[in-house]
Amino acid sequence: MFAPATYAARRAALAQKVGSGLVLLLGNADSPMNYADNIYHFRQDSSFLYFFGLDMPNLAALIDIDADRATLFGDDGGLDSIIWTGPLPTLAEQAEAVAVADTRSHAQLAEQLAEAARSGRQIHYLAPYRAEQRIWLAERLDQTLAAIDAGASTELTRAVIDLRAVKSSDEIAQMENALEIAYRMHVLAMGSARPGVREQEIVGLMEGLATSQGRALAYPIIFSRDGHILHNHGHAHTLKAGDLVVNDAGAESPLHYASDITRTIPVGGRFNPQQRIVYQAVLDSQLAAIAAMKPGVPYREVHDLAARVLVEGVAELALFKGRAEDVVNGGAYALLFPHGLGHHIGLDVHDMEGLGENEVGYGDGITRSTDFGRRSLRLGRPLREGWVVTVEPGAYFIPALIDRWAAEQRHAHLINYAAFDACRDFAGIRIEDDVLITADGARVLGKPIPKTIAEVEALASA
């Protein structure tokens, strides 16, 4: 954990932003895989971690803003639990570690919430994303599930987003710690993706590396020669020379900060001429986007810049007609690049999106587009110093999408469908890094992970 004073300062800042009332933060409970005693690996709620830092199940906390008091709720285990789990810190010991003086039982939390509801005090809570939390809140506050969903506090949500979005130097150190593991995972994959090797074998190597360091994955690994399937979690293929493999893999730090990195690997050690053109275009797109990032620049504009550079970079393949600016402004570019440029990253790999994508990524005069492609951009608002965002342009040839748009003759004056059809077996390419917004620009976090054509080919052919 961070120093106790860190959590006290975060709670004080939260109370100041929310203003008055009670703030309820629920930690997560163990989640059964198939029966009560066989559980998934525990992962604490990220907002609970941010303000209370305790990585144990069955905890909750209440911040009484008006009384300037934080209380930790839980129950100490008895002899039966010690037999199965070994001795655990007491509730009081856990509270002391995060600068909380007041501890009470779970039963007392229910009583306190009931009393607050009877007296008309405002109870601020975040939108619950687990069914058991929704049910628990509905029972304690005597409301329907629909009312619980509708009653999530706007003031608390905005305050949490504002605070969690700006990363401290200690948080950046945690993210770079996670990136050190990601570096090793990706270098291992580049040297292992050879003809005749099954995708699952390489996924196992990466997962094993993370596990050997006591780390959890930040998200399920995407490692596939079917890179045009954006979130493909199948690993059944045997690699062959000439394949392109998209490897989207990251690990967590000891305090659960995420890394999120994507590289694309040429199986056999060399990109063919067509692959080389597209790969360099994606890389140039990413580098141009990073160079343009600084406080005050709307990320939506950076997305459009990345799309223009990508379209210009594939000009030799004659995929589009006319000026790159027209292709991007008209939305035709999304046939090649159908997702957003990136998102916040921190304690969650898609940081805070459990609080609502639009609440996290939009506002400040920026509204979410309904256009295909741009509507998948999770972050559009102006960048701020201290934010960490992913930058992950890609180029994909998705046969079903090509066929649908060609049948509709969508953007026919801007798209050369014959050229796209000739590339329908290409699959996809994506390159992604985690980028800190600094006072006057941006910095890619972590040790540089090979991504130039020369660097990737050298590792893939070694």
UniProtKB/TrEMBL annotation:
Cofactor names: Mn(2+)
One Pfam family from the record: Peptidase_M24
EC number: 3.4.11.9
Enzyme class, broadest EC rank: hydrolase
Domain Aminopeptidase P N-terminal intervals: 2-134
Family, per entry: Belongs to the peptidase M24B family.
Protein name in the entry: Xaa-Pro aminopeptidase
Natural source organism: Chitinimonas arctica
